[in-house]
Specification:
10% strand, 11 helices, Rossmann fold, alpha/beta, five-stranded parallel sheet, 5 strands
């Protein structure tokens, strides 16, 4: 884990500025996300949805399938993994590349109101872009808490997919950022997948050339790690 985090810091030091200052590429990938959602073969109408658990992946590019074909993206792969585990479900892609926790908090109600039914689980995976931009961890915590409050108000089960600060952000930033996810998970009594890129970051064989987003093999590893936890929550 320490070696992975060191590599994480080195890689992010090279891509941080480009990622934080490239709204055009984010907009382009957001369009790709929308196309992927429209092409989702599992979205075949309210009747099928009503007969399957509905899981919403609510995050950023790590969930949205950045630069991947639809069949290679996180939501599709997680859906397949759950079926393999004996828990067929529809995993809805409500993620937007480039989203910060602020952007996610602002669009949450719109997403939830547009679904055909109340989700059985929402996986919240935001905050990585906050960290890349050096946004105050206090603001990230506030936004994520607002998201959890809204899900709680609607009586929707949630889980958090955590993020860790890159070492190049500095010790002080990491000390403020890293506890956000475990502390919110405890506060709201929800399950936590501590680090969404665990086992992936720092491994070039699992990453796209940018060194930060998972390639298809990396997505497979993430889904394999998070899948059993998601299955357990849905079974409850």
């Amino acid at each position: 884990m320490l070696n992975n985090l060191f590599s994480y810091g080195v890689l992010l030091a090279f891509v941080q500025f480009a990622v934080a200052c490239s709204p055009a590429s984010e907009q382009q990938d957001s369009s790709q996300t929308s196309r992927q959602e429209q092409q989702n073969p599992s979205e075949t109408g309210a009747e099928e949805v009503a007969n399957r658990d509905l899981i919403v992946a609510f995050g950023d590019s790590l969930f949205a399938g950045y630069q991947l074909d639809h069949s290679e993206g996180f939501t599709h792969v997680l859906e397949r993994k759950l079926a393999e585990l004996g828990e067929p479900a529809q995993v809805f892609n409500a993620s937007v590349s480039g989203d910060t926790s602020t952007a996610g908090q602002r669009r949450l109600a719109f997403v939830l109101d547009g679904l055909p039914k109340k989700p059985d689980l929402v996986i919240v995976g935001l905050g990585g872009n906050d960290m890349l931009r050096g946004i105050s961890p206090d603001q990230t915590r506030k936004n994520l808490a607002a998201i959890m409050d809204e899900l709680d108000r609607r009586d929707i089960k949630a889980m958090l997919a955590g993020m860790l600060a890159s070492p190049n952000m500095g010790k002080e930033y990491a000390q403020a950022f890293n506890p956000i996810y475990p502390e919110l998970a405890e506060q709201y009594d929800v399950s936590l997948y501590p680090f969404i890129l665990d086992g992936v970051i720092g491994n070039a064989q699992l990453l796209l050339p940018d060194g930060i987003h998972p390639n298809p093999k990396g997505v497979e590893m993430i889904a394999a790690g998070i899948g059993p936890l998601v299955m357990n929550l849905v079974e409850r």
